[in-house]
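Risk register update: the risk of archive-format incompatibility is retired. Evidence:
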Amino acid sequence: MAHKFVIEKNKAGEFVAKFKYNAEIIFWTEGYSSKASAKNAIDSILKNGPGAPIEEAE
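Archived output:
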């Protein structure tokens, strides 16, 4: 599978959930103090993301 979520620690020691396609980072979350919070962020994206509207900036 070419796309995946990855939880990594940033330089500040916080857990960040990143969405990657191949080796490219498509987006990432804010930093969290626990890995469980980063996993919750992924769960929220999976649950709420598919139905999210698309807005186009002019």
